[in-house]
Hints:
With 230 residues, the protein is α/β, with parallel strands linked by helices. The protein has helices at residues 4-7, 19-29, 40-56, 71-83, 95-105, 123-128, 135-149, 161-168, 195-200, 210-213, 218-229, and strands at 10-13, 35-39, 60-67, 88-92, 111-115, 153-155, 173-176, 205-208. It is 47% helix and 17% strand. Strands 1-2-3-4-5-6-7-8 form an eight-stranded parallel β-barrel, surrounded by six helices. The radius of gyration is 17 Å and the shape is globular. The structure holds cytidine-5'-monophosphate.
Amino acid sequence: MISPSVRSRLIVALDLPNIDAARAMVATLGPSVCFYKVGMELIYAGGLDLVKELVDSGKEVFVDLKLHDIPNTVEKAAAQIARLGARFLTVHAFPQTMKAAKQGVAGSKLQLLAVTVMTSYDDADLADAGYSLNVKALVARRADQAKAIGIDGLILSPEELAATRAQLGPDFLLVTPGIRPAGSNAGDQKRIMTPRMAIGAGANHIVVGRPVTQSAHPQQAAEAIVQEIV
Ligand code: C5P
């Protein structure tokens, strides 16, 4: 029997084209999955109602909206999302943005995950955007700022897990995508780890999309991942 706390370490990314497809996937996965990530694509297709629906049916929800705006707007937006009863919300790791989001979620169960530097950025992209720090230094700086501000955790790539866990200590949440069960198709993910490796490297939660949602047997695929992290 797998405990709910182990099962909830798997977050399935509902990257599906519309709400009906997402609902059907949730029904297929049934009790095997208790935590879902709903991102921009689905949210802009009516996904906020789905967030509420999932919460009402007892699921945990990660709202991946990567907020970044002036503090007043971020605070009010975070407060609106907190009302839905979701568990995680992503914000970009700019100090003003993180402080405002923290105020917005005060008193709710919504926990904030900061995105340090988008993994699509390399050192040249940062220089191009006017930053003097390289990716590694900027990630480390923003991770420290997130912790100092009282953000609950970070979303980061598998290869940053071990160093970030060492930097931030045991109580900070680390959530990672880029997970591929042994033998599965990497797709467009380049720096991948298996579920077991990622948990071993310090991840609290792993985010898995296509290896579950594009599988011929999604529930079996999800169960196999949960078995790997027991
Ligand atoms: O299908 P797959 O398992 O690759 O999905 C991973 C999820 O994590 C997707 O929702 C994707 O947008 C997200 N993500 C990612 N890599 C990042 C940031 C987010 O794969 N660097």
